């Protein structure tokens, strides 16, 4: 829009300078009509250089038609009609430029929003890819650890199968216990001749009995 304004201002300035270069520098109604037509021509030309979308093409065509009518009115010395048609052409051209610039800004905003959304989606996809990579690395590490543990277990099993099997060791323990019985007493009564009538009691010890007990314990220890 700024570029169009600069171009339009330059064209208007040129048109005004041409319009002022009349004999005696007089500014009559015909001069104003010529200036209005020159200004309208600059705006119509500027509007014709912008994008043609939406209502812009119709407004461009109407502005160009009004400019042609204004030029014909000037040629026919219809000063009032020329001024009116030139102003109408200028208004139509201004409207076309405004709509085109608005559409351009809207498209730029949409493109910027699309670019931001694409960047966000790319960042989210990148984060998901990094998370998936980390999970894959963790899974690979667990798989490697499990494989290493399996190899170690397999090696231990092979070593156990290759080792000679020793016969179990048996230990026999024998324990003998002897128990002496409590000695018993025996009383012997001897009778004396009846003349004396005296009884003598004599105790004779009885040999004590001995009990022998043997216990055998068998202990087997695997090698």
Automatic annotation (TrEMBL):
Sorted UniProt keywords: Coiled coil, Signal
Highest taxon listed in the record's lineage: Bacteria
Start-end of Low complexity biased regions: 202-223
Region described as Disordered: 193-223
Coiled coil start-end: 115-163
Signal peptide: 1-26
Protein name: MASP
Species the sequence originates in: Sphingomonas aliaeris
């Amino acid at each position: 829009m700024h570029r169009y304004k600069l171009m339009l201002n330059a064209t208007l300035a040129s048109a005004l300078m041409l319009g002022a270069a009349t004999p005696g520098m007089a500014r009559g109604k015909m001069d104003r009509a010529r200036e209005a037509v020159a200004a309208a021509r600059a705006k119509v030309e500027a509007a014709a250089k912008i994008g043609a979308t939406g209502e812009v093409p119709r407004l461009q065509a109407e502005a160009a038609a009004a400019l042609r009518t204004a030029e014909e009115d000037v040629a026919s010395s219809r000063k009032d009609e020329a001024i009116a048609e030139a102003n109408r052409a200028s208004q139509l051209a201004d409207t076309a430029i405004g709509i085109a610039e608005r559409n351009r800004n809207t498209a730029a905003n949409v493109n910027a929003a699309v670019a931001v959304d694409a960047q966000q989606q790319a960042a989210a996809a990148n984060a998901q890819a990094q998370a998936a990579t980390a999970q894959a690395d963790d899974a690979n590490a667990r798989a490697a650890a499990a494989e290493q543990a399996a190899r170690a277990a397999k090696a231990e099993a092979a070593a156990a199968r290759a080792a000679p099997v020793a016969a179990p060791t048996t230990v026999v323990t024998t324990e003998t216990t002897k128990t002496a019985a409590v000695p018993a007493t025996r009383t012997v009564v001897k009778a004396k001749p009846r003349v004396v009538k005296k009884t003598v009691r004599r105790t004779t010890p009885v040999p004590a009995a001995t009990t022998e007990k043997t216990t055998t314990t068998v202990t087997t220890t695997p090698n």
